[in-house]
Structures are given as C-alpha cells and as structure tokens.
Amino acid sequence: MSTPSYLNLSSDQLFDRRPLTRDPSLRRNRINQLFTLIAGIFASIAVLPLFLVLVYVLIQGGKLISLGLFTQLPPAPGLTGGGIGNAIVGTILVSAIASLLAIPVGVGGGIYLCEYANRGWFAQFIRFGNDVLAGVPSIICGVFVYGAIVATRVFFDQSYSAAAGGIALAVLMLPTVIKTTDEGLKLVPQELRWGAYGIGASKFVTIMRVTLPAAFTPIATGIVLAIARAAGETAPLIFTALFSSFWPEGVFNPIASMSVLIFNFAIMPYEAQNSLAWAASFVLVMMILAANLLARWLSRIARS
Amino acid sequence: MTPDIPPALLADQFTLRRRPPSEKLVDLGFRQLTLCLASVVALLLLGIFFTVLHGSEEAFHNFGLRFLTTSSWDPVNEQYGALVAIYGTLVSSLLALVIAVPLGLGTAIFITEDLIPLSLREAIGLMVELLAAIPSVVLGLWAIFVMEPAIRPVLDLLNQLLGWTPFFNTVPQGPGMAPAILILVVMVLPIITAISRDALNQVPPELRQGAYGVGTTRWGAIFSVILPSAVSAITGGVMLALGRAMGETMAVTMIIGNSLNFNLSLLSPGNTIASMLANQFGEADGIQVSALMYAALILMVLTFAVNVFAQWIVRRLSLRY
Amino acid sequence: MTTSLQEQMSSRTAQAGTCMSLQDVTISYGKFEAVKNVFMDIPCGKVTAFIGPSGCGKSTVLRALNRMNDLIPGCGLKGRVVFDGYDLYDKRIDPVEVRRRIGMVFQKPNPFPKTIYENIAFGARINGYKGDMDELVERSLRKAAVWDECKDKLKQSGLALSGGQQQRLCIARAIATEPEVILMDEPCSALDPISTLKIEETMHELKRSYTIIIVTHNMQQAVRVSDMTAFFNAEAVEGGTGKVGYLVEYNDTEQIFNAPGQKATQDYVSGRFG
Description:
A: 304 residues, B: 12 helices
C-alpha cells in the first residue's frame, strides 16, 4: 500500500494557520464589516419612509387640527375652511358595521375550525380558503360588493350605501378574525378543556366559559388590528359607500369616510381640499397607530 | 356550606343529575351555527369568483383572449384591451420586489443576527411593523406631495443618462411608473421584512452553532448555512408580497398617472388593473363594466396563483423542519 | 505586537503538556453567576471528561473554551482561559480564529442542510484548505468511523442519515479542519446505545492525534473514554434564588472513581445523588 500524499504534509501546511489575535485587515473581517454596514444601511432605508410619512402627516395635518375640523362639513370646491366631521363619523359608522358583521362570523368560524373540526378535510379546506380570501386584493372585494349589492340594489332599492361599504370592509376583515381566533384557541392548553369536561361541562359551556375566555387576549389583539386596518381601507369603499359631502343620512345612503376623502381631495386642484386631506390623514394615522399600540400593549400584558 | 346534611340528603340537592334535552340541543345547535359561520368563507370565495366571472362574460364573448394582448381602451368605440394594465401590474410589482427583497432581507438579517443591541433591534422591528399599518391612501397622498417632487431630480438624471434605452426615454412629469414602483416598495417592505425575520428566527440554533463551531465568520454563517435553511420560507414571503403588490390599489392609483397608452418608459405614466378599476368602475356602464370585470378576473387569477404558490412553498417547508 | 502578548503569556503555560489552562474562571449570564472560580489545566493528547449533576455549569465551561458563549447575549467571563500562549478572552483575540483551532461537537447532531460531502468540505474550505478535497472528505469520514455507511451517498443530504451517523458526520466535520482540540458537549445523549458505543470507539481513535474534552451525563462513559475527570457540582447561592456551579475535584479518572478526595464526588460517582 503506497503512502497517501497527505501524510507528507503537516496540517499546518494544508491549512491557513494564523495567530489567534484579531487582524482587522484580513479579507474575511473586511467582508464581514462590509456586509454589516450594508445591512445597517438597508435597515435605515426601511425605517426612513415611516419617519418621513409621520413627520409630514404631523406637520401638514397637525396645523389644521381645531374644533372646527371635527364639527364642520368639507367646503365646496373653491371655498376654504370647513372640516371633516362627516368623514370621521362615516369612518366610525362603516367600521362599526364591518365589525358587527365580521367579528361574530369570524370568531364563530374560528371556533368551529379549532374546537370542532380541528384536523378534518373540511377544516383544512376552510383554512386554505381563508388564506386565499386574505390574499384577494381589496379592490376586488369592492367589485364583488358592487356586483352583488350595489348594482342589484338589494337594500330597499338603494345603490351606494354605508351598509354596502361596511359589508365590503367585513369581507376584508373576516380572514384576519378567523385566523386569530383559530390560532388563539390553539394556544389554549388542552388540559384546561379536559378539566372542564372532567367536571361534566358540555362542549358549549366549555367553549364559552373556559376556552374562549382563556384565548381572549390574542383574539382581541387580532380583532383590534383588523379593525384598524379596515378603517384605513379605501379601495373597497370607492364604489360601495361612495362619498357624501353631507352628514350621514342613515346606513342605506352613500356616506363619507376619511380614507375616500383623502383620495378625492388629494387629487383636487384646490389647496383647501389638499390640506383637509392631510388633516384627515393625521386623524386616521393617529387612530390607527393608537389601535396598533393598544394591540401591542394587550399582547404584552398577556405574556407577562 | 352545609356540612351537617347527611350524604343521602345531599344527593337530593342536585336537581340536574341527568342532562336535560335542552342542553344537548344547545350543544348541537352551537356546533351547527359555527359550522355555518365557517362556511361563510367558502361562500364568499365562491360569491366573489362567480360575481366577477358572471360580470366579465359579455366582455369575454366580445373580445376573447385578444383582451390580454391589445392595448386600446376606447369607451367611445367600445373597444377594450387590458394589455397596458396587465403590463403595468406585472412590471410595477416585479420591479418593486427587485428593490424591496434585498432591502427587506437585509433589514431582517440586521434585526435577527445579533449585530446590534437587542433593544435597537426591537425598535427597528416595531417601526417596520408600524409602517405596515399606515393606510395605503395616506402613503398615496405622501407620494403625490412629498416623494414624487423629491425624487424628480433623480428621475431627470436617469432620463439624461439612460435616455437612449426605451425604459427611460421620456421626460418625467409628475405621476408615473417609477414613483408608483417606489411607493410599492414602501408597501411590501414590511411584509418581506416580517416574514424573513420569522424565517430566520426559526432556523434551529444548533445549525447556527454548528456553523460557528467550524470557524465561520458571522456573515459566513449567514450566507452558507442560515439563509439556505430559511430560503423556502423567505421565498413564500416574497410570493405573498408579490400578490399584495399586484393587488395594491390606492397609493398606486394616486401616483401612477393612469395612462391608457402603452409606453415602455418607466418615467412615463402607466396603469395597473387595480388602479384602472378604482378609477373607472364607479362611472362605467354597459360593456365597459364587463371589460373592467374581465380585468378584475385576470387580477384575481394572478393573485390567486401567486398566493397558492406561496402557501405551497411554505407548507413544503414546514414538512422538512 | 502579537508576539509580546504571546511572550507575556507563555511563561504561565510553560509546564509541558498543558493544552488549555483555566485560571480563576467565573462565567455569568447577566447578573447570575453560572460557574465560579474554576482553576484547571487540561493536558495535551488526552481525553478529559467533565461530569456533574444538571445545572452545575459543566457545559457552560466547555462552551467557554472556544468562545461559543459569545453567541449567548449577556454571557460574560472573568478570569483567563489560556491556550497556545494566548488568553482567549483578551480583547485582541479573534473568536473565529479560536474556533478554527478548537473544534466542537454538539449535543444534538446538527449537520448542515447540505450534502454529506459538502458538510465536510465546507469547514475545510473556509479554513483555507489547500489539499485534495476528496481525500480529506474520505480521511475525515474514516477517522470518524462513518465512511462505510456514507461512501455511496456522499451527494445525499446529511439530514438523510440516522441520528448516530449524523453525529459521527458532525465529528468528521469537526476533525476535517484539523483542530488541535475537540470539544464534545454530551455527544451521545441523543443517541441509542449502539451508536454511543461506535462514537466512543471513534474517540479512542481520535485521542491519538487530538486533545478531547467531553461533557457527559453518563459516568460509565467517562470511565470508558477519559484519562482525566473533572467533577462539577452546584450549590445554592447565599441569599439568592439560583445555584452556582463550581469545580469540586479534578484528577485522573481512576482516582476520581476509585479514591475520590471529596465526599461530594464519592456520593456522585457511587450514584447516591444526581
């Protein structure tokens, strides 16, 4: 048997051996620093838009904040002054309709998925469908509600209405609510359910009194985030709730909302309208950030 | 509470030794109720699909598959083709991803790999998440009044330097494809960052240690071991972001210019399916509604394919680890 | 500059045959001390075993020897770990260089999600290996006694092997870079008895060319494989809630198991606790 060639070389010759001290000029150390620098720059670029958007919304929108902004109607084109009172009421009303529809349906559906049909084909199918629904573009939700409700005039022969807008937003919220309920319930320890069954509680009582309260925080967090997202949505509202320059006239009539107001007023050639768009952005962003921080706080107290 | 009562009498104090039928009924009824509520998801999906399909029938009969390849959008002569919008949807979302993926992935690495103190990492993560919460329409407003004027000099420079290529041969004049792409980058960045961060956090710590144990540098470990292990989840996240970018409406509509003419140049106004819907749907009637529904159907099919592909990738990954 | 550091330290490790020397090492996680005041000279070319009950800090000490603890946020070390004339915790030391010279095998087999061949070649390549890669892969796998099982599937994923084979692949990966010391952190705890036996045989082969330090829960294993044994124990901190580990006794394995100098050692090795 011939001697393998590697035996002629010691490991010091075959490998780079350096002293243990750090040598910053080494290629690998320079590459390391370079990539850390690049990643740092990328991270700064990623947070830059948030700062810029917040700064402009605060400056441009903040300077219009006054009592009149909340109590007055938008001015007619060409006039100045006015407020966005109807849009604020409208956003709250439409989001409330959406929540009233999406929360019961979503929580109920989530309960079915997790508590009754956990691993069956039907549950898998619904979960898949839920993910698909979550990926449907929001404008398509608007098209759907337009085709199904606005164009068919199902509500007392009314076409555009706050109710139609609420339904469109509900379609958008539903996947989030179902998903957070399903996953929130999954986190509840199995022992808790067994404990309730063990003292003879029925499934209904177990879910209502034990499982659902135990999963309250993650579900509430998800719902708060879903409402915040829906409140800022515009695309599903443009041709369902439409817009109105007046105070809301019930749920079966067109209604103003802050998001549609921003869209309409941003592209108008009048300065007064443009500034009202900024003011509405300010109010909307503050509401949404507050909801996000509330959700974060909720999940933090749940963890501790 | 009443310790003196003998056991025989204690039993009499329970009135419900046997479950009454009403309790069973409630149990069963609740189950059926939640089943119905869960089915709403399926009904909605079917409803959306058939509404759009039904609405697009007329346009499909009139224009057939030519709709995909012609670019005239002419309400006067009732001739419709969605090429401009389809091209704009694909180009804007793909180019946005080309920019957003390195940025998001780099950010995710920066906030997962212990390069900076934990509190700073959490702060950056929080800020990226809050960026995702800013409504699209507010970003659109910001894009019109702040971003577009700010980047105009850069776009002018691009036009001067690269004007000889068809992609930059028009003079930028306000709204256009390029600012729309940038605002899309801002919108998908949080998704890519969040999903990449989760994917990197899920790489088993043993693998990381193994890499450091054979003497890799930090970035050596990231490139050779950590990223390859997380690549499927990251790809899934990128696909989800692609779906979101294709369907994104408001900010794009406000800044893309909504042009009906085909133009290769990124500096000229363009259009996407979503922004065409947002702009025209409210005022359209007759076959134009049907043509818009047809375009909506194309958008749905595109996003559906991308989302299903994303889920398939993510699911395949969860089997492996 | 580097030589002055080396000269400064070399007098301390002049005693022949000392590979690593721990001098008053105290390791803490945040505010909590995990192990304190460890003094120990680990000989070259021998197998040294760390034994002791759970939570006594033996793994922590092992991981301090090639600065793997750097990866745990908040983990700090006081005292000195001297290797090859350097204090490994000196500011000027590059931990990457340390890990190239002091390899490690972990508790859970952790092959990279690459082919078997690449698992071995990866470490060698980043260590600037200049020789024949095929040869190195074969030699390393042979030394780790896993060549016969994987010679026909070098292009398959390392994850396709069984647990015991994966762990021997990880040993092969560690020795492929020709380190001077191999640290093994309970390398058999996730394995069945037959795989364990094979790994122990591998260790007997390896100690001819490497210094091996192994943490083990299994006292028979310590007796079977090691020349020297260190017994760690943990005691409650006065006024605190946690426990802090310390080195009870360090001697020839024979001595530790047959004539221990401390009562705690006697109790532990005879199975009276732990």
